[in-house]
């Protein structure tokens, strides 16, 4: 009985992870598909400076 309960919990956990990863993936596709290239470039550039990566 305990094993069956553990299996059900594992399946629910996997389903939650699947839904989360799917939503994150669709979000990344939407953002990268809809955003202007300059906006993406500026965001990456600002992140590089925030990480103190030598840039220019
Ligand atoms: Zn820079």
Termini, distance in Å? Answer: 62 Å
What's the β-strand tally?
Answer: 0
The small molecules bound here are: zinc ion
Number of helices: 2
Strand content: under 5%
Class from secondary-structure proportions: mainly alpha
Order of helices and strands: HH
What does the overall shape look like? Answer: elongated
**Overall number of domains:** 1
Report the major sheet: none
Query: Mean pLDDT across all residues, rounded?
Result: 87
Low-pLDDT windows of residues? none
Give me the Rg, rounded: 19 Å
Q: Percentage of helical residues? A: over 70%
Task: Describe, in plain words, how this protein is organized in 3D.
InterPro entries: CbtB_put. Pfam families: CbtB. The chain has 56 residues and is mostly helical. It has one domain (2-50). It has helices spanning 2-34, 37-50. The longest helix is centred in the first third of the chain and has 33 residues, at 2-34. The radius of gyration is 19 Å and the shape is elongated. The chain starts with a helix and ends in a 6-residue tail after the last helix. The protein binds zinc ion. Zinc ion binds at residues 45, 49, 55-56.
């Amino acid at each position: 009985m305990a094993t069956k309960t553990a299996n059900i919990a594992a399946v629910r956990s996997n389903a939650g992870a699947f839904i989360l990863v799917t939503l994150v993936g669709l979000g990344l596709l939407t953002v990268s598909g809809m955003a202007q290239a300059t906006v993406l470039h500026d965001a990456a550039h600002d992140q590089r400076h925030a990480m103190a990566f030598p840039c220019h």
